[in-house]
Q: What sequence folds into this?
């Protein structure tokens, strides 16, 4: 074999650089389903099914080209990890070099490097053209900046690519005159709740997916999550259908209700495209172009289109840049010295707190939560609880179908848990139960009252919120936005402060 192309489960794009000078006569492809990818964090069953089914569908396409494909199916071999499986292959076959695109997980890259080193096989790691940032672009942008603010990175990429730029200004100014329409995008559903939200297209499991489901059910019986509702796209054709469906039916209201939540409403106006994007069944450029075109054709308003594009061109590219700039140091950061165990109900949804019960229940059912549930319900509670960042990171990596470390880790350790001490976010995203009450209908069906920090009905979020301010008061006293909360705490009576501490101790006793 002249060149062995290694294709990972989240690298299912036909425009990848590994195919550029692929010569079917001398080169071969290697793909492997390895138990460790589901067990190094105890993966949700749907997450494992998604990756394996999409890989098997992609392998079918490769076979149609009649390319030489070495594919290790789960259950048909005894290798646990990439390192062991690849090392075995390389020690049995003469291979000129191994080629792969930069993986989405630092750990996997290290394993592949080791397998190549141990067999003295040259390794060629290629840049990932799926991303819009060019190789080295983020590092150059980052250099010399005191703080890498997402908004400036986003503006930089908009100017460089011309996305949503006003051509009458020579592409220098943003379309509509503003970079950001966030102020229009914070609506809630009020008391009545969402009305007739269009159901997203879902994909019934075909034979390949059904086979994988049966295998996962047997091999990972005690893993979290259910499989009954599996409906994720596992091929490029399905991913394109999901994109069309979002643009036609939900994009118009994406902006307005971006931050809103409601019980038993898993999808609302979100795109559900992270899965297809992260597996590379969709290219972010085509997703952005489809949204921009909808605006140009008068099918969607600017606040929706800009809000949506910012998530992909801004946030998605930004977190990837940060991941590769700060790994592996990020893994060990714990700036707020959070030392509690993540409560067990994160794995079962067994809690009376309506917002957490719904958000976790939905993750168990679908492997999905939209951004505000991830940040301001499950993430917020873990932060206020002072859960160990590593445990929170493992939970998110295990439970969401779209979780790949490059995107999950900065969102969890940086944005949600402030474990990096402010590298990514300017302040911890903290709020009391009052925020959840404003943005959702959860509190209407909850035994707790979001206003109360003490007493029988005290909302645990509100109690823990004041506990958090008390614990970190000196650190945030001078902060332009959190300083105000510290002053509110200063104005609180000693008795109330003691009652809050007592309530926190009770919560910890009940939850332990
Ligand atoms: P939409 O709301 O429709 O957004 C459109 C697209 O924008 C998404 O598909 C996604 O590709 C991109 N996007 C939006 N926000 C972000 C963001 N903060 N970072 C990167 N891309 C973004 N996203 C993942 O893809 N995988 C994860 O494992 C993941 N873990 C997260 C953990 C936490 C604690 C938080 C706060 C966010 C996390 N996100 C993650 C980002 C975001 O929540 C999801 O991308 C989004 O909810 C996916 O659903 P959607 O496709 O319906 O998104
Ligand atoms: Fe969540 Fe508190 Fe509202 Fe209950 S009252 S749903 S725990 S925020």
A:
């Amino acid at each position: 074999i002249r060149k062995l192309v290694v294709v990972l489960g989240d690298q299912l794009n036909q425009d990848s650089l590994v195919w550029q000078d692929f010569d079917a006569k001398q080169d071969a492809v290697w793909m492997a389903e390895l138990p460790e990818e589901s067990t190094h964090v105890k993966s949700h069953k749907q997450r494992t099914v998604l990756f394996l089914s999409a890989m098997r569908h992609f392998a079918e396409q490769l076979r149609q080209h009649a390319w030489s494909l070495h594919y290790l199916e789960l259950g048909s071999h005894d290798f646990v990890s990439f390192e062991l499986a690849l090392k075995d292959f390389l020690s049995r076959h003469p291979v000129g070099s191994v080629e792969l695109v930069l993986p989405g997980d630092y750990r996997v890259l290290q394993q592949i490097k080791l397998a190549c080193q141990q067999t003295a096989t040259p390794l060629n790691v290629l840049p990932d053209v799926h991303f819009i940032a060019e190789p080295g672009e983020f590092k150059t942008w980052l250099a010399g900046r005191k703080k890498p603010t997402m908004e400036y990175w986003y503006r930089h990429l908009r100017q460089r690519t011309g996305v949503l730029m006003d051509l009458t200004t020579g592409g220098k100014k943003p379309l509509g005159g503003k970079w950001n329409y966030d102020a229009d995008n914070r609506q809630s559903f009020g008391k009545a709740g969402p009305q007739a939200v269009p159901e997203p297209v879902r994909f019934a499991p075909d034979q390949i997916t059904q086979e994988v489901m049966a295998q996962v059910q047997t091999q990972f019986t005690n893993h979290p999550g259910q499989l009954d509702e599996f409906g994720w796209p596992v091929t490029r054709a399905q991913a394109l259908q999901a994109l069309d469906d979002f643009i036609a039916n939900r994009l118009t209201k994406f902006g307005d209700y971006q931050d809103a939540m409601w019980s038993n409403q898993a999808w609302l106006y979100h795109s559900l495209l992270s899965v297809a994007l992260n597996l590379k069944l969709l290219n972010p450029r085509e997703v952005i172009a489809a949204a921009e075109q909808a605006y140009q054709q008068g099918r969607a308003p600017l606040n929706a289109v800009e809000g949506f594009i910012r998530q992909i061109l801004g946030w998605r590219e930004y977190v990837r840049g940060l991941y590769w700039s700060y790994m592996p140091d990020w893994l060990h950061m714990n700036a707020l010295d959070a030392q509690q165990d993540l409560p067990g109900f994160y794995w079962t949804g067994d809690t009376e707190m309506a917002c957490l019960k719904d958000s976790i229940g939905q993750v168990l059912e679908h492997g999905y939560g939209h951004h505000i549930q991830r940040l301001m319900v499950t993430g917020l509670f873990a932060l206020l609880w002072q859960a160990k960042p590593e445990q929170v990171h493992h939970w998110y990596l295990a439970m969401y179908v779209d979780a790949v470390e490059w995107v999950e880790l900065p969102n969890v350790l940086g944005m949600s848990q402030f474990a990096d001490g402010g590298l990514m976010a300017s302040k911890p995203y903290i709020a009391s139960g009052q925020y959840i009450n404003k943005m959702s209908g959860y509190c209407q069906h909850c035994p707790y009252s979001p206003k109360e920090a003490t007493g029988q009905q005290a909302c645990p979020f509100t109690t823990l919120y004041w506990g958090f301010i008390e614990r970190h008061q000196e650190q945030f006293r001078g902060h332009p936005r959190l300083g105000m909360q510290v002053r509110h705490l200063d104005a609180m009576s000693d008795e109330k402060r003691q009652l809050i501490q007592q309530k926190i101790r009770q919560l910890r006793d009940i939850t332990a």
Q: What stands out?
A: The mean pLDDT is 96. Residues 94 and 166 are 55 Å apart (CA to CA). Residues 137-200+250-326 form a domain with the Serine Threonine Protein Phosphatase 5, Tetratricopeptide repeat fold (CATH 1.25.40.80).
